[in-house]
Design goal:
alpha/beta; TIM Barrel; globular; binds S-adenosylmethionine; binds iron/sulfur cluster
Length: 351
Amino acid sequence: MSNLRDLKDSPGNLVVADTLGRPLQDLRISLLDRCNFRCPYCMPEAEYTEDYQFLSKSARLSHDEIFRLAGIAVGLGVTKLRITGGEPLLDKKVADLVGRLATLAGVEDLALTTNGVLLAPVAQALADAGLQRVTISLDSLDEDIFRTMSGNRGDISKVLEGIAAAEQAGLSPIKINVVVQRGINDHTVLDVLEHFRGTGHIVRLIEFMDVGNRNGWSMEQVVPSKEVLKQIHARWPVRPVGRNYPGEVASRYQYLDGQGELGFISSVTEPFCGSCSRARISADGTLYTCLFASTGTNLREPLRNGADDQELATILSSVWKLRDDRYSETRRPVPDEKPLINKVEMYRMGG
Ligand code: SAM
Ligand code: SF4
Ligand code: SF4
């Protein structure tokens, strides 16, 4: 790995920036494309039936391969790693992988995103292995709405147990992701905020995004963050707070009564491509430089054909240096129009 240094102008001083000057800082690793939920906005159950062909074990990167690619990415300046999916906790050995990733010098932030149902029994093992924090998705506290939004799969009490176990294990600050869909769960957002106010957990309200091609997205179902903010401010006055780090996607707010923080991820109405420093590697080893990409770069093939670390680093850095993605800034949502491009689905690419 020492040769990686010549991709930097001096140690710690990165030259791996894209055409818009954005550094490569974050890497999201999708462990598998399978999921125990069928959230309609991500994997609608009519499309992902029992006989749907997900990636085979041999098609997925092994933990050895993931560890190697992560190490190379860290050598190029990545400081934040996130394990995701699909549902990453369906991988029974995820704590072993966490333990290995935690040994990479240069990783400042090691996190995992999960729907939370399988979290309670493994939260402590993940923390012991070196996981720093978790983000847990929970779209509503209303049982019926939650069931609908998990594709009739989710058990809300298990998610709440998962959150409690994560807290107990010190996987904090815990972030709670809520995808807000008009007419589906928007009227229950304040209940979620009320539940988590004062706990130290940070609820993040995410605009329903046009990821992939199968979730029937339309602008009518997007509730602009500004609209939600108004409702929140009327109930519990809030004030904006600055970003924690460059490239942070959430706009942060604090309750004026000291009950903590919340965030908005407003990819549709307030795009943040200008500071996007994220790459994703899917479970089959494809590198994507944008959540809305239609194509990626196959890393599995060179990896399995004997490429050395320097060669893999060159592929990664060359792709990043050519990157000009800014989908959210240029999207033209036209209701009812068929998608013009074949976007890779989010559960596959790694959310
Ligand atoms: N299965 C895990 C989970 O749900 O937390 C990790 C993968 S999931 C793809 C990552 C995040 O993407 C979740 O918080 C989910 O709510 C969010 N997500 C999926 N589809 C989305 C969409 N169409 N718009 C906004 N967020 C979405
Ligand atoms: Fe599964 Fe997460 Fe997608 Fe829901 S959002 S279907 S939990 S991958
Ligand atoms: Fe990054 Fe693509 Fe999202 Fe823009 S649209 S913030 S480039 S992932």
